[in-house]
Each structure stands twice: as C-alpha cells, then as structure tokens.
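Quick question, first post here. What does this chain look like in 3D?
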Amino acid sequence: MKKYFYYFFEKLTTFYINCPEDSFEYGKSFRIPKGGLFYGLKIKYGSLSDCKIPFESNNIFNENNDSILVPISAVAKSFDNTKIMKIEFVEHVRKINSLVNEVEIIKKLNALECQSAPLLLDSSNLKLAFLKNILSEVDYRTLSLLGVKVVEYMITEYIPYERKVSLADIVLAMLEQKSLGYYQGDLKPQNIRFDSRKGLCVLLDYDQAERINKKVRDMSASQFFSWCNYRDSEKYSLKFKNWMRHFGYILPKISCFFLLKNGAFDLSKTSIYRNQVTTNAAGGIYHTIKSKVIFAEGVRTLKERALLLDKVEFELNERVLDVGCNAGLLCHYLFKRGCLPWGVELDAPIAQAAKVIANILNVKSKFSVLDLDKDHLPESFDTICLFSVIHHTRNLEENCLKIARCCKRILIECRLHEKGKKPIVINGNTSWESTSIWDYKSEEDLYEGLSNLFPNFHVKRKVGNADKHRILIEMVKK
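> Answer (accepted):
Ran it through. Tokens below.
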C-alpha cells in the first residue's frame, strides 16, 4: 500500500503537458536582411471585427464583413532550423500587446538574463510589397485595401519540440518571470517548449503578457497562482477556471497543490534538479534553499559558513569567484555583502538552476559551467573561494596554479585529511572516481602545504573552524 501511494504521489508531482509538435510545410521561401532564408509561412486569420484598423472598413468591401478573412499574423521557420519569425499584419483587438510591445517585453527579459524567455535575434519592419510574391493574391489584396503598407516582424531563437513538459518546469518558468516583473498571461501547450540545452521550460508568445507590480512580485508561490487565477478570470471573463485551463481541469490543479509546501514551490520536482549529478547525497540535493517562493531540502545550508565569512572583509564591488558553486548560496551571501559574485559549476543542470534561482530571489550574480580539470578560468578576480572543492579535481597542482594566477586572495575551506571524488557520467549513468588526496598531521603542516600548492601565496590567518572538522583559511598574494 505504501509503495502504491508513493507511486501515485510521484505521478502527481511529475504531471506532464503534451505540447503540439511544430509543422512547417515547404513552400515559397523568402530572405530577410540579417535574418536569413525562411520558409513555411503559416498565417492566422480573423474577421474584420478582430482587427484594429484606423478607419471604417464597411465602405471598402462589397460583401458581408463577417465573411471576410483577414491575415492577422504569421510565423515562418529558417532553413537552418535555428530561428522562428513572427509577422504582424494587423493588430488583434483581443491582444494586449502589439508585436512592437511584445518585442520590448522579450528585450527586457533578455536584458534581465531571464532563462525561461526566448532569445530575441532581430526585429524590424517590412514593406507589404516585399511579401507580395509570398502571400496569396486574395490576402495581399485584403491587406492593401485595409491600408496596410508596412508590417512588423521579430525573429527569435527556434526551440524545437523535444518532449512533453512537466507542470513543475512550467511553474518554475512562471516564478522566474514573476520575480523579473512579468506574467506571460496565455499559458497553453502551443506557447510552451522544453529547451533540452538548458533543461528548462521556455515560455513563448508575449502578446498577452503584462507587467506586474511589486506587490505581485513579492507574493509567495501559492499567492501568485491565486492571483493568476483571478487575473485570467478577469481578463478572459471566465468563471470557475484558472491559468491551467488549457492543460485539463482537475488533475493539473491537484498536481500543482502537491508541488507546494507552506506556499513555496518544491525545486526538487524540476528537470534541472532531477538531472543534476554533482552531489551523491541521499536526496540528490546539496544546498538547502528556503524562501516563500521556492525551497529545496538539501544537506548543506550557509549558516555555519556565513558566521565565519562575517569575519572576512570584502570591498564594495569586489569581484569574487566561487568554484563549485552548486545552487549558488555563497554567491547569494556575497551579493548581499556588496560583491560582484560569479559562480562556476561542473554540472550544467545545477549551474542553470543557479541562474534561475538567483533571478527568483533577486540576486545579481553570474553563473557558468566550468570543469577546472579542463577549462581556464573566465577572467581574473579579487578573491577566489574554494569551499570543500579543490581536492575534488584530478589535477591538483595544475589547478592550484590556475587559481593562483587569477586572483589576489584565496578563501579556502578544507580539512587536514581530504579524499576527493568527481562524478563521471557515461550513457546517462553516474559513477564517482577518486581524484586528489592529502593527509596533513597538523594545521601548521596544512598551511605549509597550501602555500606550496598556491605559488606566491601565503596564509594570512585562520578565519575559524567550520563544520565537519573543516577550517576556513584566508590566503593572500605575497
């Protein structure tokens, strides 16, 4: 019975949305300046009453207006399958945003480094005459009679259909954009894609998106979803429906309930957390995160480290690198201390998670994927933090030399005895291989050993004792 309940609970917390696959038929192609070659123009039509037009159209057409099909918008795909183009012929009366406004929203999300928004590649306008040979004669004539001379377009990255998208991944995307000040406002399967490169859900189509105020941005996850229900009911004149209405009715609502705890969203149910490999803790989560918006139950908090780091001086705008940042807790602390933090992480999914988490918690920090055994550091820093990490690399001496060349100060947390391990993923299976080992008899021996590992550095002081017999040491360049 217990096993059956666990299976049922797991199904509820991993509810998947079946997204429609894109289909573009090869037809007439056209080339956009700076955009490349596109094909498969798919047009959405509406009636005259659906269109925002600047003059009375009754006198233009000699037929029943309700029977006239007007091209309102269209999409096309690039031949190299990397870009998608959206064209707006006329504005739709039921859309909050014109294409120009939609472009501005995506630009803003890109500028804020939103991970759940598509990347805007280009936007401009075209003379209608440019599309004369692409549009049907009827469509071109209709638009010409309506006075359309110029059409707006935008080009974004193309995210192909990969698989079904979990409700948890959709929720994570919504919460990231909420913290950045936007609600996408039109959540349905065709407006959702799973980007396998990021391991994240990306929300498409912002013609119903709206800017939200600080009160909404500061809501807990459960409060925000209630607000989404209210907003959609108000906007679309719906009763007894909610923002998940396009995903079915009962099951998604039940599933969403099981994704929350005390009003916060459980990060462990997302794809990026399920696919991360850099911790072999029982629950598969290293950093504990607790906020009213998101939470993760890990094996490590920042409480003990923060008490020691409070004794360390940091200058305003000091550039600090955290090697092996995991979900980014140390970067969060450093940001609050006025630093410019940058976290690097071996595991791509968890590095991606760190970016999203920072956006949700309003932390300004860079995050990137880096394997110290293979890669060079991105630039020079004032301080580099090595918290229980350097012995988990294979090339210890070489990596310590890399560190020493790229900073003025090192904060290292370690023990007298260390035996490192590193995850190796082969065909989706993770194993742990031994890396570097050291064994010092005393703290003085450790200080001497570290001074030898990091050329031109000496131990300035022992900051204090951390948990699990670890020591926090401050080293500076001679």
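The chain has 13 helices and 27 strands.
The chain has three domains: 22-157, 165-274, 302-477.
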